[in-house]
Amino acid sequence: MKKILLISVAVLVFVIACTAIAAEETVSYVPIKISDSFNNNGIASEENYIGDLAGGYAYPAELWPQVKKSGIIVAGVPFLLADKTEETNNNISCNGDEIKFTPGNYSAILILGASVYAATPLEENISLNYTGSTDDVILSLTDWCQEPQAGEKIAFTFAYRLSCNANMREDIPNYIFMQTIQIDSKRKLASITLSENVNMHIFAITLKK
Predict the structure, then answer these.
(1) For residue 182, is it within any domain?
(2) How many domains would you assign to the chain?
(3) For 1-40, how does the pLDDT look when each residue is reduced to its tens digit (9 = 90+)?
(4) How many other CB atoms are there within 10 angstroms of residue 155's CB atom?
(5) If both were cysteines, with which of 65, 139, 155, 199 could 178 make a disulfide (CB 3.0 to 4.6 Å apart)?
(6) Is residue 57 part of a domain?
(7) DSSP 8-state class, residue 143
(8) pLDDT, tens digit, for every residue of 75-92?
(9) CATH of the domain at 190
(10) Which domain holds residue 141?
């Protein structure tokens, strides 16, 4: 009786383990190319101090993560993040842009971004344009010089920011966050329309299947 019970438990554990592995294997990500919508240069270097994420301040190129041609991995998620090429736009200052991609059944939207001039996290509607219908969901992003307050994860931490007006460092920690929005995977998503709040900056978007 004990042997039968032990065998049953072992089989159950094996089945659970296999199910978990299968579930993990079904997860996939689709990084979206958003560079055509870039309209802001939020990175500056101490060689030229050219950049303006907000009020003449910018992320430091010297601390910018190394980005391969294939992109970058953040917490297991691939993103098409811009590199630190000088004097080049590298993010979207939201202005109602529509981000199009191959329609598909996606379960989540993952966004690298941050807000500026935000004493509290900015909360703005973005439109999910499904085949035949549209839903609005809220995107929340904390100010780049504050620790996350809107359920985000920290994607990148920078020990200082650059003042491009004063040509100097400011020892104020700043961040880019990863925010996740769960969506309806039963419908085919064809595009996302961003908010019109220019104080919300998007650096990369990836879709989860």
Answers:
(1) yes
(2) 1
(3) 555 544 544 444 444 444 444 445 589 999 999 999 999 9
(4) 25
(5) 155
(6) no
(7) B
(8) 999 999 999 987 899 999
(9) 2.60.120
(10) 27-37+72-78+91-161+169-208
Residue 103 lies in a domain: yes
- What is residue 3's predicted lDDT score, i.e. its pLDDT? 53
Distance CA 55, CA 57 (A): 6
One-letter amino acid identity for 13?
V
Distance CA 91, CA 124 (A): 17
pLDDT on residue 203: 98
- The DSSP code sequence of the chain is -HHHHHHHHHHHHHHHHHHHHHHHHT--EEEE--GGG--B--EE-TTT----SBTTEEEEGGGPPP-BTTBEEETTEEE------TTS--BEE-SS-EEEEEEEE-SEEEEEEEESS-SS-EEEEEEEEETTEEEEEEEEE-BTTS---SS-EEEEEES-EEETTTTEEE---EEEEEEEEE--TTSEEEEEE--S-TTEEEEEEEEE-
pLDDT digits (tens, 9 = 90+) for 46-105: 999 999 999 999 999 999 999 999 999 999 999 999 999 878 999 999 999 999 999 999
Q: Is 0.85 surpassed by the pTM of this model?
A: yes
